[in-house]
Design brief:
By secondary structure, the chain is of the alpha+beta class. The protein has ten helices and six strands, in the order βαααβααββββααααα. The strands form two sheets. A four-stranded mixed sheet has the order 1-2-4-3, covered by helices on one side. Strands 5-6 form a two-stranded antiparallel ribbon. β5 and β6 form a beta hairpin. α2 (about 40-45) runs antiparallel to α10 (about 200-215). The two termini are about 25 Å apart. Mean pLDDT is about 85; it is low at about 1-10 and about 10-20.
Length: about 220
């Protein structure tokens, strides 16, 4: 479960570095369980048949389920391990294919899961985000499209961490920068995925959790 423990630069933790509570995930899990035919669920995941897969994914995130097959030791079951990035991160993790610090510096990301590893790297700019929304930012639907890109709905620390854990549990099936199709972030692009790829795109889960947490009408 999520635990309270602030991480400083360069530190690691097997638990989340922030006390974020269970409310967003609980709201989404309850919605999938009780209202699987809602417009919100269909918008992000398309089919009632996806209900079990979405429920299973959200429960894995909530419990931080340990899984096997991840580096540095594929034989041990590992929970996601969160690492706060600084300029010395790659030196402490020399087997990484890319330098998380450079990725954080030059790409518009707040965190990243290193594919095939148990590590989720948290960028310095992540801590500039609010932990949770203080007001509702629920996008309206105009001409059958959402009116905003959606970032005001989802760009908060609690939802970013959920996003990266979705990458972790989707594993090699997760969409990313080099997958086909590539990972999508804008709200309208996410809802335009077909049923198969909506389940592979972490932003779909992030938007769904955020919408169920603060947008009762979705």
């Amino acid at each position: 479960m999520f635990q309270a423990a602030w991480l400083r630069s360069g530190e690691t933790s097997g638990a989340l570095g922030l006390d974020l509570g269970q409310e967003p995930l609980d709201a989404a899990i309850n919605a999938v369980d009780q209202s699987p035919h809602s417009h919100g669920f269909h918008a992000f995941f398309k089919l009632d048949a996806s209900r079990r897969l979405v429920m299973d994914m959200l429960k894995k995130v909530k419990t931080m389920k340990a899984i096997r097959g991840l580096k540095p030791n594929r034989f041990l079951a590992s929970q996601p391990e969160f690492v706060c990035v600084d300029e010395n991160t790659q030196g402490r993790y020399p087997r990484l294919p890319t330098d998380p610090y450079q990725t954080c510096r030059f790409m518009a990301v707040f965190g990243l899961w290193m594919r095939g590893f148990k590590y989720i790297f948290i960028c310095p700019k992540f801590f500039n985000l609010p932990i949770a929304p203080s007001v509702r930012h629920c996008p309206r639907v105009i001409d059958n499209e959402f009116e905003r890109k959606g970032y005001l709905l989802a760009d908060y620390q609690k939802y970013i961490l959920i996003h990266e854990m979705i990458h972790f549990y989707l594993g090699q099936s997760s969409l990313g920068w080099e997958s086909k199709p590539v990972e999508r972030y804008k709200l309208n692009e996410c809802v335009n995925f077909d049923a198969k790829n909506s389940l592979r795109n972490p932003m779909n889960y992030q938007y769904y959790v955020a919408s169920k947490s603060i947008c009762a009408q979705v």
